[in-house]
Amino acid sequence: MRIIEVESYEKLSALAADIIAGQVLLKPDCVLGLATGSSPLGTYANLVKRYEGGLLDFSRVRTVNLDEYCGLKGNDPQSYRYFMDKNLFDRVNVDKESTHLPDGSAPDMEAECSRYEALVESLGWPDLQLLGIGHNGHIGFNEPEDVFHAAVHTVKLTESTIKANSRLFDKPEDVPTSAITMGVGAIMKAKRVLLIAGADKAEIVERAFQGPVTPRVPASVLQLHKDATVILSKA
Ligand code: GLP
């Protein structure tokens, strides 16, 4: 596992975009595993800039996102589908049909978990999986638990995650209390993993990557990944 410390969020975003752009240039029809949250916003803005400058072509790229809130339709401004459309997919030339997220509004969530797991497998596991990290060590929405969940599953969000994510909602009671997420299986099967974290995550990054591997700190499993890079910003 490589841990790279950079001076600023701008540098983190530029470096993460370099790595993703390199992946797309190397394999134009790659599968990118993508993430939401505020951490990747700068990375996506950098990728858009490169596309606008004619330096990147997303026309053959396929994407799979990690997670989605339960109960939100894709056109809900709080949904992760909406976030991805607004910050990346609608701003580059990716084929929207090739962009995938779990459907948080599916009537049968168990069936949706199986559908999404099979879909990710059929695309081929991500060539590169981008990740953020929650303050409690969650990746995607794999919350601290007694066991690691390999497959796509639904999860009841912890109080701390609901609180952290409430900053993006008008009212705390609007934050969904459950979500559907890729399990650590798909994340570990990604050929490369790239986790980005701001200075506010320094403590959990240390626990996750310098402490024991435990499902109580889900990101710690990445210590066992053969090609994982963490970019940590000092500011
Ligand atoms: C959410 C997402 C995670 C993300 C985390 C951290 O809970 N499900 O994928 O990594 O938030 O987000 P932020 O980057 O905004 O701190």
Describe the structure.
The protein has 235 residues and is of the alpha/beta class. The chain has a single domain (2-233), classed as Rossmann fold. Helices cover 32% and strands 18% of the residues. It contains 7 helices and 10 strands. It has helices at 9-26, 41-52, 80-87, 109-123, 159-165, 184-189, 202-210, and strands at 2-6, 31-34, 62-65, 67-69, 99-100, 128-131, 153-156, 178-181, 192-197, 228-233. The strands form 2 sheets. Strands 1-10-9-6-2-3-5 form a 7-stranded parallel β-sheet. A 3-stranded antiparallel β-sheet has the order 4-8-7, covered by helices on one side. 2-amino-2-deoxy-6-O-phosphono-alpha-D-glucopyranose (GLP) binds at residues 35-39, 66-67, 132-134, 140-141, 161, 165.
Per CATH, what is the topology? Rossmann fold
Per CATH, the class reads Alpha Beta
- Strand content bin: 15-25%
Rg, rounded, reads 16 Å
Structural class: alpha/beta
Strand order of the largest sheet: 1-10-9-6-2-3-5
Helix tally equals 7
Oligomer: single chain
**Terminal CA distance:** 22 Å
Keywords: Carbohydrate metabolism, Hydrolase
Pfam family, one: Glucosamine_iso
Protein name: Glucosamine-6-phosphate deaminase
Domain Glucosamine/galactosamine-6-phosphate isomerase: 26-229
Brief overview:
32% of the residues lie in helices and 18% in strands. It is α/β, with parallel strands linked by helices. The structure holds 2-amino-2-deoxy-6-O-phosphono-alpha-D-glucopyranose.
